[in-house]
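Deliverable D5.2: sample structural annotation.
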Amino acid sequence: MPPEDDGTLSGCRLHASCVRWLERGILIRGPSGSGKSALVARLLGAGAWLVADDVVELRVQAGRLWAHAPARGGLVELRGLGIYRTARLARTPLHLAVRLAPGPGAERLPPAGRTAICGVELAEIALDPDFPAAVAFLGLRLLAQRVDP
């Protein structure tokens, strides 16, 4: 079903996390245990705001994808430490999807990625959450303009 543009909401629910950082919404996707919450914690330390951890409700409004927390938002699980309540935003428009891709083997100059979520196209990158410069790379991806050779 295509996104509705008449102001009504349609959407879906994903096993993912979401933050707002540098004035942009970031959806972080990966299987359980892949490092979503750990990357969220690093982004929170860099000044991001939590929208949702582990489950994200997505809604399409006027052709734009918005992320919301489920009813019990503001919680983040830190594996091995427990569940913590943190300040959060109720919702954010999404600008980028991050697909967690642990380990070596990333292409040196991959083509610009896109993905369709709930029928809406969104820019996407693959990122190793354990890479020491992951947060810095993510910040550059959000703020800098990509130059293709």
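Annotation notes: Residues 1-9 have pLDDT under 50 and may be disordered. The two ends are 36 Å apart (CA to CA).
The annotation will be released with the project's public dataset once the embargo ends.
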